[in-house]
Design brief:
- The complex is a heterodimer of chains A (302) and B (755).
- With 302 residues, chain A is of the alpha/beta class.
- Chain A has two domains: 249 residues, Rossmann fold; 43 residues, no CATH class.
- Chain B has five domains: 104 residues, no CATH class; 182 residues, Rossmann fold (3-Layer(aba) Sandwich); 99 residues, Immunoglobulin-like (Sandwich); 238 residues, Rossmann fold, CATH 3.40.50; 87 residues, Immunoglobulin-like.
- Chain B is built from 15 helices and 39 strands.
- In chain B, strand 20, helix 10 and strand 21 form a beta-alpha-beta unit.
- In chain B, helix 6 packs parallel to helix 13.
- Classes of the chains: A alpha/beta (302), B alpha/beta (755).
- Chains A and B meet through helix 8, strand 9, strand 10 and helix 9 of A and strand 2 and helix 2 of B.
- Strand 9 of chain A pairs parallel with strand 2 of chain B, so a sheet runs across the interface.
Chain lengths: 302, 755
């Protein structure tokens, strides 16, 4: 399995080009460019500080001691990597395929490609990337690594069997929270079909752990616009039993109201938790989505 | 409910088409694997019921449309309203009001009667050959209506014209019901055709209607098979501005018209229009010969009178007519005539009970002067009255000499039995007898009954003693009495009173005869009038009819013996008016249109020549509708003419032919004038309310046109066609379907989703 199975060469090159653009726009996309506020031991000297008992002896600047007969400790700026966790929704609802999406992809396929692109992008910058796929529970988990060869397991996890299970975003997020440590970048790719209240609470927990969160809400254009009419049986992708035969046109307005209400709740939750909520539809090119990502990152760094 | 095109009703099964389509599409649906069920589920749950209802409604509408269309085309008839047995033959009684107001002709339109005939033709055209028609005309309610077929009815209808007299709708319906009782079919319909004038629908009509309705109800209960329906066809125009000018009346002001003496006639003209009628030409005519036209003007909505003073030379009955020369909505009422009986000079015989040798000393002298003032004054002008003074002994011979209308007995105290018998006959045959009191009068003579073979003459007052002092010259203390105003009941003396003053105020009485009048006598008290009283209430003059004649008794003397009345100016008109009134016979030459003309044998003028031993008598009539022979009645029976259906002059001729000598024949004529009541010129339509009340009482319906009547009749007989209602329902269903489709189930092209 190669990256080219998921990302077309053209897209790869565009991703690469974007990397150049991004590098110019945002510092810290590549390894070593992430300025860390945490002081630690690194290659770049920052300042001296007087020795206090308990400090490691190896950190004493003996040259300064020779000159001034005082014990000083050398302090360096710590160079941290951006620990990126990709959270990809694999629930049944993601299996929806509209006619207008890019290359006729399902939402899940779209999300997979997007996640792959992110992973490649991150690893290209030598940032560690982890992957968690989930539906109503955690499914595949790939630990945090920054080696370029780490792309392989990530891609494998992404294409692992997709089930038609229902979604429980809130519950899953709460399970993930203890696993991802602190101060990371969390990229959620999901259609957010779940209780907005529960999602809101989970996002707050992420935020409490000082994570930076970018939430890509993936919807098919059909889901956003509901262009159906006539008698249509809506078969639930998550639960086999639930079938609704309705006259589609008659409920369009009501559906759109409900969608707007859901989105509003989600937006409100994101605002409270300072989550970057980026609604995208599957007919948007991936590049645009990366642009969105970069823009979001820039907002976060500021 | 029944269907006229029952086969088309099977088209209603087309309702299965939308039903099948519905069921077909119900099983045909797209399947979409849907992701966002989290959002859709709640929406569907909330809207499911509404959508189900909407869809069901839509399905029902779509099924209803072909059903309604099929029923509409099948022409259903609602028989719930049917009151009568379908096509059973019926008796149609057409009660048509052919009074004068029906001839009203609005400008540019046919007259009401023509409209009525046209509508009736439409009604008749709808009848079948089995139906029978009876025609009841308002002008001839007495006639027995005959049953006829439709074609005869049409012919009869053609002859109808509106010249009749006012007829009340109540009478008309009464006559129609009487006619309907003769109908051969149990199903009967009365159709009252009228313009429903206010006068025709009076309170009596409503009363009659109530009675009819009551009788009807009883009959309907007693005989369920009989079905009587009353309909009304109103051909009134409900037209506001009726530019009608009419002559409402022509009256004779003079108490008696004497030949070669001027008579006074008054015409009452009325203008019903809102505009004044200026410069109208009014033409008076005598026996059809017009006089010089006059120009008159009548203010808007008012009446005016026009007076004619004219002399008619020939004695006999003459026609005096007033005509307004103007074309208006009702032409027939622009002329009106009156029959005037012109008499030769009135012969009055004054019988002096105690003739005096000196002037004005006799009992009758003052009266003679008062009756013939011109002759007394040597004037050339003829007096209407020729008064001859005779003694009681010469009375009989004087009566033989001249035909006398009035005999005045002045203080006559004694009469032979033959004279009394003669007097009784004279009064019984229509003569007038006036008795003045006086010193020489003996009460016993007048307190007894004068008899001839058949005639009985009893005086209205029985005479008593003289009250007061009869001897003026006696020098005794003078007691005088005053006379009250003459009674207002006596028309000829109305002219005496000018203003409110008592014309008798200057008159004194020194004595009068006590009259005992049995005023409680009910048998003939209707004709008994006390003409004069003293201010104390004692009767001074009393009038009564006896037989065909009249008797007047005065309690005072005819000369100046007891009173100064003959010396007062009021005496002359008082006596003249009284005598002229007594001389002028109550003419019955005026009849209402429709009334029969009856001429008794002694109504004819006496033949001038003595007929032979055997004569043949023939009667003929000249009427506004032509000339024809009349049936000769049996001896002593009156001549009758019932066909007086048009206003105008009816001349009846009596021709006597001597059988021995056919060349020797004599023709006598008398005329009668038939007029229409002036109320027909009022042209006031009855109020809607009253008309409706009448209709409600009779359980009748009022129609404006025959088409509406036929519609109603058809629904009564066969039920009502209701396809219009269904068509409206169909249109509503179509619009509702479209609206529902557009607003609730808007269709759009499927642009997304895969199955």
């Amino acid at each position: 399995m190669r990256i080219l199975d998921f990302v077309k060469p053209k897209e790869l090159s565009r991703v690469a080009r974007l990397q150049i653009l991004a590098r110019e726009i945002v510092e810290g996309y590549c390894s070593g460019r992430h300025r860390s506020p945490h002081k630690g031991f690194s290659v770049e000297f920052k300042e001296h500080r007087q020795y206090v008992q308990g400090d490691e002896l190896k950190n004493i600047d003996w040259k300064v001691f020779g000159k001034s007969d005082r014990l000083y400790i050398r302090q360096y700026e710590e160079e941290t990597n951006l620990r990126c966790h990709l959270l990809v929704d694999q629930s049944g609802s993601m299996a929806y395929k509209g006619t207008r999406s890019v290359d006729g992809l399902t939402k899940h396929e779209y999300a997979t490609r997007l996640a792959a692109a992110f992973a490649y992008f991150m690893l290209g910058q030598q940032d560690p990337v982890a992957l968690v796929t989930f539906d109503n529970d955690l499914r595949q988990q790939v630990p945090l690594r920054s080696r370029p060869s780490h792309l392989q397991p990530i891609l494998s996890a992404l294409v692992a069997d997709q089930s038609r299970r229902d979604t429980d975003l809130g519950g899953v997020f709460r399970k993930i929270v203890p696993k991802v440590g602190r101060r990371g970048l969390i990229v959620i790719i999901s259609d957010s079909m779940g209780d907005a209240e529960s999602i809101s609470r989970s996002l707050a927990q992420f935020r409490a752990n000082k994570h930076e969160i970018i939430f890509f809400q993936i919807l098919d254009p059909d889901e956003a616009e509901f262009p159906f009419s006539g008698r249509i049986q809506f078969r639930d992708l998550e639960q086999v039993i639930d079938e609704q035969t309705v006259d589609a046109a008659s409920i369009r307005d009501a559906y759109q109201d409900r969608l707007a209400q859901h989105n509003e709740a989600l937006r409100e939750a994101s605002r409270r938790s300072r989550v970057d909520l980026i609604p995208i539809t599957t007919d948007q090119p991936f590049v645009d989505v990366l642009h969105e990502y970069v823009a979001a990152r820039r907002r976060a760094v500021r | 409910m029944s269907l006229l095109n029952a086969a088309l009703a099977f088209g209603a099964f087309a309702f299965t088409i939308p039903l099948i389509i519905h069921l077909f599409f119900r099983s045909r649906f797209k399947t979409v694997d849907w992701g966002a069920m989290y959002l859709l589920e709640s929406v569907v749950r909330v809207n499911r019921r509404r959508m189900q209802v909407t869809n069901l409604l839509l399905l029902l509408l779509r099924c209803a449309i072909p059903v309604l269309l099929a029923f509409c085309l099948a022409r259903p008839v609602w028989t719930g309203l049917r009151a009568l047995a379908g096509d059973a033959p019926k008796t149609l009684v057409i009660a048509i009001d052919d009074s004068r107001s029906m001839s009203l002709t609005p400008p540019g339109e046919p007259s009401r009667i023509e409209v009525a005939k046209r509508e009736l033709r439409t009604v008749l055209a709808d009848l079948t050959r089995r139906d029978e028609v009876m025609l009841v005309r308002g002008s001839r309610l007495g006639a027995v209506p005959s049953k006829m077929g439709v074609s005869d009815a049409l012919a009869g209808l053609r002859k109808i014209d509106a010249q009749g007299n006012a007829v009340s709708i109540g009478q008309l319906i009464d006559a129609a019901i009487a006619a309907a009782d003769e109908g051969s079919h149990p199903r009967r319909q009365i159709l009252v055709v009228s313009d429903f004038q206010a006068g025709a629908v009076d309170t009596a009509t409503l009363e009659a209607a109530r009675r009819i309705a009551e009788t009807n109800k009883i009959e309907a209960e007693a005989d369920g098979g009989k079905q009587l329906v009353i309909d009304m066809l109103d051909v009134g125009t409900h037209w506001d501005d009726l530019a009608n000018v009419s002559v409402d009346a022509v009256t004779i002001d003079s108490p008696v018209i004497v030949s070669e003496r001027s008579g006074v006639y008054t015409a009452t003209l009325r203008n019903a229009s809102d505009l004044p009628a200026n410069d109208l030409r009014l033409i008076w005519s005598i026996d059809g010969k017009p006089l010089e036209p006059r120009v008159v003007s009548i203010d808007a909505k008012s009446t005016s009178t026009n007076r004619l003073t004219h002399t008619i030379d020939q004695a006999g009955i003459h026609e005096v007519a007033a005509t307004i020369d103007r074309g208006d909505v009702l032409v027939d009422d622009n002329t009106r005539s009156v029959a005037v009986e012109v008499i030769d000079e009135v012969n009055v015989l004054l019988v002096d009970g105690r003739p005096g040798k000196e002037p004005l000393s006799g009992q009758a002298d003052f009266l003679a002067i008062a009756l013939s003032p011109f002759a007394f004054g040597g004037d050339d002008r003829p007096d209407p009255v020729r008064a001859a003074v005779v003694t009681s002994r010469r009375l009989e011979s004087a009566l033989d000499e001249n035909p006398t209308r009035v005999i005045v007995l002045c203080g006559v105290g004694q009469l032979s039995d033959s004279v009394k018998q003669r007097m009784a006959t004279f009064v019984d045959q229509g003569g007038a007898l006036v008795v003045f009191d006086g010193p020489s009068l003996r009460p016993e003579l007048y307190n007894q009954v004068w008899r001839d073979q058949d005639a009985v003459l009893s005086f209205p007052a029985s005479l008593g003693d003289v009250v007061g002092n009869p001897e003026v010259d006696s020098g005794a203390a003078e007691e005088t009495f005053a006379i009250d105003q003459p009674t207002s009941l006596y028309q000829p003396w109305k002219i005496l009173a000018r203003g409110s003053d008592n014309p008798m105020s200057a008159v004194n009485l020194s004595a009068y005869r006590a009259f005992t009048i049995d005023e409680a006598d009910e048998s003939d008290s209707t004709h008994r009038i006390v003409l004069l009283r003293t201010t104390d209430g004692a009767p001074l003059a009393v009038m009564d009819t006896v037989g065909d004649g009249t008797v007047v008794q005065f309690a005072i003397s005819g000369n100046a013996a007891w009173t100064n009345l003959p010396l007062r100016p009021v005496f002359l008109p008082l006596i003249q008016q009284l005598v002229l009134d007594l001389a002028g016979k109550r003419s019955d030459a005026m009849i209402q249109v429709g009334q029969p003309i009856v001429i008794n044998p002694n109504d004819w003028p006496a033949p001038k020549t003595e007929g032979g031993a055997e004569t043949r008598t023939r009667f003929a009539a000249r009427t506004p509708r032509g000339q024809f022979e009349l049936e000769t009645p049996d001896a002593g029976e009156p001549v009758r003419l019932t066909a007086t259906y048009s206003p105008g002059v009816y001349t009846i001729q009596k021709r006597l032919t001597d059988l021995a000598d056919p060349e020797k024949s004599e023709t006598m004529e008398t005329l009668r004038i038939a007029t229409v009541d002036a109320s027909e010129s009022m042209l006031v339509d009855v109020s809607q309310e009253r008309q409706q009340t009448l209709a409600n009482i009779l359980n009748a319906q009022v129609f404006e046109s025959a088409v509406l009547l036929q519609d109603a009749d058809r629904s009564r007989s066969f039920g009502r066609e209701i396809w219009r209602v269904i068509l409206v329902a169909l249109l509503i269903a179509l619009v509702a379907e479209l609206w529902l489709q557009q607003n609730l189930v808007a269709r759009r092209k499927i642009t997304g989703g895969t199955s």
